[in-house]
Amino acid sequence: MTDVLIFGQAHWGRHIAAALNSRTAGFRASVVQPRAYPSLLLAPPRHRRVALMRVGYRIGATTIRGRIFDAYWSMLRARLPSAVRCHYWIGTDVLNTLDEARAGTLRRSAVASSKDDLHLADAPWLATELGSIGIEATAAPVPLPGRTSGAVPPLPATFSVLTYAPAARFAFYGGPLVVEAARRRSEIRFDVVGSESTVDPSAPPNVTWHGWVSDMKPRYAAATVVARVPVHDGLGSTVVEALLNARHVIYNQPLQHVRTISPTTTDTLVDAIDEFHEAHRKGRLGPNLAGREWALSEFDDEKLADDLASLLLSHA
Fold it and tell me: Is 0.85 topped by the overall pTM?
């Protein structure tokens, strides 16, 4: 039995722990609460195999919190020298590390100390970005149990575009681009999940605001196209879920069975929307069944959990 002790972003950590516990044999994973950090230094679990995993807590950060956690991580490594050490990069942590590397403030000595650790990245482009600053990472999408959809809903009779742009990070998730696209294409309905109309009172009337949505199935069923155009991204859950629901996807990252736009501008977004809208108008647009079949295979939670388990074992 291998105990996987997960530190960092609790939301993603819980998903990883649930996947390992329910889908793999020989692993017992748990998210370590900050209040339990000191006890691991005082009484480390030396009697069994251990893997230490930090999720979204980037190494080499110049922030006070980053420095403190790096110091704690070093002490934990010393207390458990035989433990597998894993860094799971999920998105914004990569963006911030790249920014610090460009600014010359990244603590290179801390990064160098992790050279022999296992580095995993939620998406292939994150692994490429990390490689550009000397961190060798393996692409390994985070397993998310329960993400597989049921029956494929038919495309709606009325063409529409769905996007996710949470209010707290509306601009980061490309909200203003989507609103401007809606302004240019007033005949198309645009649905925004994660925000209320107060984030942009000037938005045109063809934008419908849904706020926080706990069950996305009806929203995917009502959408023809899902657009995701953030400033930076890991593997967007709405992209995977859209594919599983056989929806067409506009994304600003390279992924199979999506319409990739580059650069990320209103013009490129509108051009992509126009392509799908024209196909819909001519009756040539059916569900994205090829994308669904690919996603069912590529993002099966049992497969992803098994892949993660194999990577941890290979680094033991």
Answer: yes
